Amino acid sequence: MNVATKLEDGELEDLLDELSSAEDFLNFFEIPFEPSVVQVNRLHIMQRFHDYLSDNADSVARCEGNDKALAVVYQTLLARAYQDFVDSDALTEKVFKVFKMQGPQTTFVSVDSLLQE
Protein backbone atom coordinates (compact mmCIF):
# COMPACT_ATOMS: atom_id res chain seq x y z
CA MET A 1 0.00 0.00 0.00
CA ASN A 2 3.05 2.27 -0.22
CA VAL A 3 2.03 3.87 -3.51
CA ALA A 4 -0.92 5.58 -1.84
CA THR A 5 1.26 7.28 0.75
CA LYS A 6 3.39 8.84 -1.99
CA LEU A 7 0.49 10.50 -3.81
CA GLU A 8 -0.78 14.03 -3.67
CA ASP A 9 -4.43 14.61 -4.51
CA GLY A 10 -4.88 15.43 -8.17
CA GLU A 11 -1.87 13.55 -9.51
CA LEU A 12 -3.09 9.94 -9.75
CA GLU A 13 -4.88 10.35 -13.08
CA ASP A 14 -1.82 11.96 -14.69
CA LEU A 15 0.43 9.20 -13.38
CA LEU A 16 -1.93 6.49 -14.64
CA ASP A 17 -2.02 8.13 -18.08
CA GLU A 18 1.71 7.39 -18.37
CA LEU A 19 1.24 3.64 -17.88
CA SER A 20 0.91 1.52 -21.00
CA SER A 21 1.29 -2.15 -20.08
CA ALA A 22 0.06 -4.59 -17.49
CA GLU A 23 3.60 -4.70 -16.13
CA ASP A 24 3.60 -0.89 -15.80
CA PHE A 25 0.37 -1.00 -13.77
CA LEU A 26 1.58 -3.84 -11.55
CA ASN A 27 4.88 -2.08 -10.91
CA PHE A 28 3.18 1.27 -10.26
CA PHE A 29 0.87 -0.27 -7.67
CA GLU A 30 3.78 -2.27 -6.24
CA ILE A 31 2.12 -5.62 -6.80
CA PRO A 32 4.67 -8.44 -6.97
CA PHE A 33 4.14 -10.55 -10.07
CA GLU A 34 5.53 -13.47 -11.97
CA PRO A 35 6.50 -12.26 -15.48
CA SER A 36 5.49 -15.57 -17.06
CA VAL A 37 1.93 -15.21 -15.70
CA VAL A 38 1.62 -11.66 -17.01
CA GLN A 39 3.18 -12.50 -20.36
CA VAL A 40 0.50 -15.10 -21.10
CA ASN A 41 -2.44 -13.28 -19.49
CA ARG A 42 -1.77 -9.52 -19.75
CA LEU A 43 -4.93 -8.68 -21.72
CA HIS A 44 -7.05 -10.90 -19.51
CA ILE A 45 -5.64 -9.32 -16.34
CA MET A 46 -6.29 -5.80 -17.58
CA GLN A 47 -9.81 -6.68 -18.76
CA ARG A 48 -10.57 -8.32 -15.42
CA PHE A 49 -9.23 -5.19 -13.66
CA HIS A 50 -11.55 -3.08 -15.82
CA ASP A 51 -14.46 -5.39 -14.98
CA TYR A 52 -13.68 -5.15 -11.26
CA LEU A 53 -13.57 -1.35 -11.53
CA SER A 54 -17.00 -1.40 -13.18
CA ASP A 55 -18.36 -3.80 -10.57
CA ASN A 56 -17.04 -1.55 -7.80
CA ALA A 57 -18.06 1.79 -9.27
CA ASP A 58 -19.62 2.86 -5.96
CA SER A 59 -16.34 2.35 -4.10
CA VAL A 60 -14.46 4.21 -6.81
CA ALA A 61 -16.98 7.07 -6.74
CA ARG A 62 -16.68 7.40 -2.95
CA CYS A 63 -12.96 8.02 -3.43
CA GLU A 64 -13.41 10.94 -5.85
CA GLY A 65 -11.06 13.72 -4.85
CA ASN A 66 -9.01 11.45 -2.58
CA ASP A 67 -6.23 9.99 -4.71
CA LYS A 68 -4.72 8.05 -1.81
CA ALA A 69 -7.98 6.18 -1.15
CA LEU A 70 -8.55 5.69 -4.89
CA ALA A 71 -5.06 4.25 -5.30
CA VAL A 72 -5.77 1.72 -2.54
CA VAL A 73 -8.98 0.64 -4.30
CA TYR A 74 -7.17 0.37 -7.65
CA GLN A 75 -4.28 -1.54 -6.08
CA THR A 76 -6.64 -3.98 -4.37
CA LEU A 77 -8.66 -4.65 -7.52
CA LEU A 78 -5.59 -5.01 -9.74
CA ALA A 79 -3.99 -7.43 -7.29
CA ARG A 80 -7.22 -9.43 -7.28
CA ALA A 81 -7.33 -9.46 -11.10
CA TYR A 82 -3.72 -10.64 -11.29
CA GLN A 83 -4.31 -13.32 -8.65
CA ASP A 84 -7.25 -14.69 -10.65
CA PHE A 85 -4.77 -15.74 -13.33
CA VAL A 86 -2.20 -17.08 -10.90
CA ASP A 87 -4.85 -19.38 -9.45
CA SER A 88 -6.56 -20.18 -12.76
CA ASP A 89 -6.21 -19.65 -16.52
CA ALA A 90 -7.83 -17.62 -19.27
CA LEU A 91 -10.01 -20.45 -20.54
CA THR A 92 -11.42 -21.11 -17.08
CA GLU A 93 -11.87 -17.43 -16.18
CA LYS A 94 -13.63 -16.57 -19.47
CA VAL A 95 -12.94 -12.83 -19.34
CA PHE A 96 -13.66 -12.12 -23.00
CA LYS A 97 -16.94 -12.69 -24.80
CA VAL A 98 -15.45 -15.24 -27.18
CA PHE A 99 -14.81 -17.56 -24.21
CA LYS A 100 -18.39 -17.16 -22.96
CA MET A 101 -20.07 -18.31 -26.16
CA GLN A 102 -21.92 -21.59 -25.88
CA GLY A 103 -21.00 -23.89 -28.75
CA PRO A 104 -20.11 -22.91 -32.29
CA GLN A 105 -21.75 -19.83 -33.70
CA THR A 106 -23.31 -20.13 -37.14
CA THR A 107 -24.54 -17.47 -39.50
CA PHE A 108 -26.37 -18.14 -42.74
CA VAL A 109 -25.44 -16.04 -45.76
CA SER A 110 -27.43 -16.77 -48.88
CA VAL A 111 -25.78 -16.88 -52.28
CA ASP A 112 -28.33 -14.30 -53.47
CA SER A 113 -27.15 -11.79 -50.86
CA LEU A 114 -23.56 -12.24 -52.02
CA LEU A 115 -24.50 -11.59 -55.63
CA GLN A 116 -26.43 -8.38 -54.89
CA GLU A 117 -24.62 -5.14 -55.54
Your description of this structure?
- With 117 residues, this protein is mainly α.
- It has one domain (2-115).
- Helices cover 67% and strands 0% of the residues.
- The protein is built from 9 helices and no strands.
- α4 (35-55) crosses α6.
- The termini are far apart.
- The mean pLDDT is 84.
Number of helices: 9
What is the first-to-last residue Cα distance?
61 Å
- What would the average pLDDT be, to the nearest integer? 84
Q: Write down the Rg.
A: 19 Å
Unreliable residue runs: none
Number of strands: 0
How would a crystallographer describe the biggest sheet? Answer: none
Properties at a glance:
117 residues; mainly alpha; 9 helices; elongated
Short description, anyone?
The protein has 117 residues and is mainly α.
What order do the helices and strands come in, and which of them pair?
Layout: H1 2-5, H2 12-17, H3 22-28, H4 35-55, H5 57-62, H6 67-87, H7 90-93, H8 97-100, H9 111-115
